[in-house]
Design goal:
By secondary structure, this protein is α+β, with helices and mostly antiparallel strands. The protein has three helices and eight strands; from the N terminus they run E-E-H-E-E-E-H-E-E-H-E. Strands 1, 2, 3, 4, 5, 6, 7 and 8 form an eight-stranded mixed sheet that branches. It is globular, with a radius of gyration of 15 Å.
Length: 138
């Protein structure tokens, strides 16, 4: 069983260009996050790229280029969260593939997050109603 919560608001993917130009805005966002707002800020830093996913309301802090249209963030939970449960992403992404919805996935220790284009958010509700293994919470 997958318990999926649609987080509030829209999110955008940002090419931060470099960690130096991204660090100050990221710190501003981290310090201003409201723990009651049920939001997510994700960033990935490697030798190849700096990728940042932020709620659209924080785009004012960046001068970077935003990719595509906004995304909706879905938090995926299971009865046994964490690294001990195999196949979570495979199961969820397979369901979205059936509906031809492109996704971006991000995993943390306790949760998996799926980002879907905002234009597909109504289809997420349809997926949940048609699939007995998904329970959608708002």
């Amino acid at each position: 069983m997958y318990y999926i919560t649609m987080l509030s608001g829209d999110y955008v993917l940002l090419d931060g260009k470099s960690i130096r130009s991204s660090l100050e805005p990221l710190l501003r966002i981290i310090y201003s996050l409201d723990s009651d707002a049920n939001e997510l800020v994700e960033f990935h830093i490697s030798t190849d790229e700096v990728s940042i996913i932020i709620p659209t309301r924080y785009t004012k802090y960046f001068n970077g280029e935003f990719y595509t249209e906004p995304y909706k963030a879905l938090k995926v939970e299971t009865d046994n969260p964490g690294l001990e449960e195999p196949g979570i992403l495979a199961g969820v992404t397979g369901i979205f593939k059936q509906y031809e919805i492109p996704i971006l996935s991000v995993s943390t220790y306790s949760y998996n997050y799926i980002f879907v284009p905002s234009v597909n958010s109504s289809t997420v509700s349809q997926i949940a109603s048609e699939n007995e293994n998904i329970e959608l919470e708002n």
